[in-house]
Design brief:
With 526 residues, this protein is of the alpha+beta class. It folds into 2 domains: 274 residues, 3-Layer(aba) Sandwich (D-Maltodextrin-Binding Protein, domain 2), CATH 3.40.190.10; 218 residues, Dipeptide-binding Protein, Domain 3 (Dipeptide-binding Protein, domain 3, Roll), CATH 3.10.105.10. It is 29% helix and 18% strand. The chain contains 16 helices and 19 strands. The protein has a 7-stranded mixed β-sheet. A 6-stranded mixed β-sheet has the order 14-18-13-17-15-16. Helix 1 runs parallel beside helix 7, helix 10 runs antiparallel to helix 12 and helix 15 runs antiparallel to helix 16.
Length: 526
């Protein structure tokens, strides 16, 4: 296989990436990117998957934004004040904010946008528990009042994980939080070019000529979002060999998530550079649907964990061990919250213990549906390992492969598997997402309000609230450890370990910003 790929670098026919000559900007003003997946859902408040968040950050903005160290900085906000008692926050919008249709951004847009986000997101939902009112003092001044102090307000309003708190037009933000907005009118540095969108093939963004960036230097997602190209094109190339060949020949400029087994070849190729864009590793996970049996029973979820060896999954998904490590922390080993308390017994497999747990839970071989895709290679390979691993304990797995767009759509289905629902899927999330108890979407056990899989546990939610309420670092660390022990018992998902996912770019393209998610402002072609 490797020999064929290397030959493909030199011999594969050029890809049909070009636009009609009449519509094409100068080559050095078009940034061509191969993203990890196709874009199907256009609403970053109704889908938490990475590709939709990448899309959301292209065309929308939020009140705050995280810098490269995950510190929140003002973005749409010009300045803000906090009352001495910590119960009132006043935000003033900056000059020059306009939607792509020319309308000025006002607090009439901000308030319903934030309300819609708080109804969906883990961190937003936690903020909502503290909010007593959200009101407009005038068209550019917003006042947030709290029942009790919460120091994470700017952090929450700048979130780049889960469902993100983007500001939409008032009419769009009035959409039911559990229905996707299909319009794409934001106020961000790029405009979505719907006319040239070809689902499954290409997504196009044009520079927003009316966008006014902040004056501060870019840092992570914060600071000046200066667009240095006229157009960004995402070319959907699910076959890794094809993407590698396109990068080698210059038909794409950036490969967002190169296949791990091809990285050694890519690193040796002339004119190609491989590097990380996040300081924290990603976390891989096996997520069960906890609305229905058998995974509504925590004993079955514990059995799932005892049947799955992280090394098997990580080796299948990411190959070379220099890219991955075992870790049983929900909050990422190496992060400030990276405890493994309570998860010690899941460091090794124990088939007999898993069988006893399944028997105690009354599992009798009912079919469970594991949905996955080969479009994102690690997912498909790890899904095959999951089916084999769970079968050792007697779990009857029906492994079903489709394209990633169909998987992400099916994940919203809350019915049983015989009615189009699902029971398990494999995915990953960024270290910045998972390292904090307030942003880790998988550990939100708030029932219907949580992420797909919808786990319920009042005790875990009480312990998570204690983390938010902690007054100092010592108390917060103690609360985080107590929460982690409960999560290890409840197993809202099986942590499959962590891995680094570098990106690859042509040397003629400047590096992307070190950020929680890949963005394409401040990138230029030389």
């Amino acid at each position: 296989m490797r020999q064929k790929i290397v030959q493909c670098f030199a011999l594969c026919a050029p890809l049909a990436l070009a636009m009609p000559a009449a519509a094409q900007p100068a080559a050095d003003r078009v940034l061509r990117v191969a993203p990890h997946a196709d874009l199907r859902n256009l609403d970053p408040v109704s889908a938490s998957i990475v590709i939709t968040r990448m899309h959301g950050l292209m065309i929308y903005e939020s009140l705050f934004a995280w810098d490269s160290k995950l510190i929140p900085r003002p973005q749409m906000v010009d300045r803000f004040e906090q009352s001495e008692d910590g119960l009132s926050w006043t935000f003033h919008l900056r000059d020059g904010l306009r939607f792509h249709d020319g309308q000025a951004v006002t607090t009439r847009d901000v308030i319903p946008s934030l309300n819609r986000w708080m109804a969906r997101d883990t961190l937003g939902g936690k903020l909502k528990e503290y909010v007593s009112s959200l009101e407009a003092a005038d068209e550019r001044t917003l006042v947030l009042r709290l029942h009790r102090p919460m120091g994470l307000v700017p952090f929450a309003l700048g979130s780049a994980v889960g469902y993100i708190p983007v500001v939409m037009r008032e009419a769009d933000a009035a959409t039911d939080p559990f229905k996707a907005v299909t319009t794409t009118i934001g106020s961000g540095p790029f405009r979505f070019n719907r006319g040239e969108w070809q689902p499954g093939a290409r997504v196009v963004y044009d520079r927003n000529p009316d966008y006014v960036p902040r004056r501060e230097p870019a840092d992570g997602l914060a600071g000046g979002r200066v667009v240095k190209v006229d157009r960004v094109e995402w070319h959907i190339l699910p076959d890794p060999a094809t993407a590698a060949a396109a990068l080698q020949t210059g038909e794409i400029d950036i490969w967002e998530q190169p296949a791990q087994d091809l990285i050694p070849s890519i690193e040796r190729a002339r004119g190609i550079q491989v590097q990380n864009y996040s300081s924290l590793p990603n976390q891989a996970l096996l997520r069960p649907n906890q609305l229905h049996r058998p995974f509504s029973d925590p004993r079955v979820r514990q059995a799932m964990a005892l049947l799955t060896d992280q090394g098997d999954f990580l080796a299948a998904g990411f190959g070379d061990e220099r890219f991955w490590k075992r870790c049983n922390s929900y909050f990422v080993c190496g992060s400030p919250n990276g405890t493994e308390a309570g998860a010690e017994r899941f460091g090794r497999t124990d088939v007999e213990a898993a069988k006893r747990l399944l028997a105690d839970a009354g599992y009798r071989g009912e079919k469970v549906v594991l949905i996955s895709t080969h479009e994102i290679p690690y997912m498909g390979r790890m899904a095959e390992v999951a089916a084999q691993s769970l079968a050792r304990g007697g779990i009857n797995v029906d492994l079903q492969f489709t394209d990633w767009g169909a998987v992400s759509t099916r994940l919203q289905n809350r019915e049983t598997n015989d009615k189009g629902g699902w029971d398990m899927f494999i995915t990953s999330a960024s270290g910045p997402t998972m390292q904090s108890p307030v942003t880790n979407i998988g550990t939100n056990m708030g029932c219907a309000r949580g992420w797909v899989g919808w786990p319920c546990d009042a005790e875990a939610e009480r312990l998570r609230a204690a983390v938010v309420d902690a007054r100092d670092d010592t108390a917060r660390a103690e609360a985080t450890e107590a929460l982690h022990r409960r999560l290890a018992e409840m197993q809202p998902y099986r942590v499959l370990g962590q891995y680094d996912q570098p990106y690859a770019r042509r040397a003629s393209v400047s590096p992307v910003l070190a950020a929680p998610i890949m963005v394409f402002w401040n990138v230029e072609k030389r």
